[in-house]
Write a structure and sequence with these properties.
CATH class of the largest domain: Alpha Beta
Structural class: alpha/beta
Radius of gyration: 22 Å
Number of helices: 11
CATH architecture of the largest domain: 3-Layer(aba) Sandwich
Shape: elongated
Oligomer: single chain
Largest sheet: 7 strands, mixed
Bound molecules: 6-O-phosphono-beta-D-fructofuranose
Strand order of the largest sheet: 3-2-1-4-5-12-13
Number of domains: 2
Order of helices and strands: EHEHEHEHEHEHEHEEEHEHEEHH
Strand content: 15-25%
Length: 344
């Protein structure tokens, strides 16, 4: 019997295919070990206001293939207002939690890292479709997003070819261009633009023109939402979320206009947006989410708190949680160099 009797689980930040497989795995493994599992609704917000739901075998039945999160999510930051942090710590005590498994990205796990210092026992599970968390080879959700984006690129190819057009596909990726790079390589994009390298519009137009000179009168450009011409983000609104992030938007349109003006070739823009985050997870993401969930409970059972589960090669291990959130994992330069071989 574990020293942990009551285990809380929550999902925070943007949703992501694979969250439900983690919740299911955590619940099944923790119940097997004799724990009571409590789902906390809507990320850290649920722990501030005490919005919880008991999880049993019945409540996690049938959720494996479902997108989103049965617990709901929010971008609530309990460190924004001191009274929220106080309430969160009080709720944790009042509901007699012994440990938590927060599932989230840089923001949710950033809060978790601080809560460890407040004495909360927790094990984090990394999540983001952007795949930009350090200390893990992959996060679940990324593979699903890449497959959705790749299929969209395939579809754009046939219409681009028929109409002799340039198609710009804007994909997610706030700080890192992992989705753009993977989906672009898999879909045979002619140019891939990522936040890690400022866009050189002359170089992009040269590539497209040269392609036309060799008889290819259509092209596909994949651009990550966080890619920029200089160092200023293109934003959809001026509003910031509780973690200080802007809502990005507009780079696809801006790029499409410039490319059309400068090359003279008809151009269309498609913004994939939240289509990439919705729907059923791929087999890879279901398996990774399941493995992450099981390992998180096993670290709880071993009393290894302040850790985050991580995929390293084909092993799932625990690493100190601050390693995951301290620094963003940007696109590997070698991989981007490989992608560039196919530009044009
Ligand atoms: O962080 C994941 C992410 O999908 C980013 O790629 C994107 O910029 C952001 O979330 C969108 O967030 P929201 O759903 O809050 O608009």
């Amino acid at each position: 019997m574990s020293a942990v009797k009551t285990l809380g689980v929550l999902t925070g930040g943007g949703d992501c295919p694979g969250l439900n497989p983690v919740i299911r795995a955590v619940t099944r493994r923790a119940i097997q070990a004799g724990m009571q599992v409590i789902g906390i609704r809507n990320g850290w917000k649920g722990l501030i206001v005490g919005d919880t739901v008991p999880l049993d075998l019945q409540s996690v039945s049938g959720i494996l293939p479902k997108g989103g999160t049965i617990l709901g999510t929010s971008r609530t930051n309990p460190y924004k207002k001191p009274e929220d942090l106080k309430k969160l710590l009080e709720t944790y005590k009042r509901l007699e939690f012994d440990a938590l498994i927060p599932i989230g990205g840089e923001d949710t796990l950033g809060v978790a890292t601080k809560l460890v210092k407040e004495g909360i026992k927790l094990v984090g599970v990394p999540k983001t479709i952007d795949n930009d968390l350090s200390a893990t080879d992959f996060t679940f959700g990324f593979d699903t997003a890449v497959n959705i984006a790749m299929e969209a690129i395939d579809r754009l190819h046939t219409t681009a070819e028929s109409h002799h057009r340039i198609m710009v596909a804007e994909v997610m990726g706030r700080h890192a261009g992992w989705i753009a790079t993977y989906a672009g390589i898999a879909g045979g994009a002619d140019v891939i633009l990522i936040p890690e390298e400022p866009i050189d519009i002359n170089a992009v137009c040269d590539i497209i023109k040269k392609r036309h000179q060799r008889g290819k009168d259509f092209s596909i450009i994949v651009v990550a939402e966080g890619a920029k011409f200089g160092d200023k983000d293109l934003t959809a609104t001026e509003k910031l979320d509780e973690f200080g992030h802007v809502r990005l938007g507009g780079i696809g349109d801006a790029l499409g206009k410039l490319v059309e003006q400068r090359t003279g070739f008809e151009t269309r823009v498609t913004v994939l947006g939240h289509i990439q985050r919705g729907g059923s997870p791929t087999a890879f993401d279901r398996v990774l989410g399941t493995r992450f969930g099981i390992k998180a409970v096993e670290l709880v059972l071993e009393g290894q708190f302040g850790q985050m589960v991580s995929l390293q090669g084909n092993l799932i291990i625990g690493v100190p949680i601050e390693l995951g959130t301290g620094k963003l994992k940007t696109v590997d330069a070698d991989l981007y160099r490989l992608a560039k071989i196919f530009f044009g």
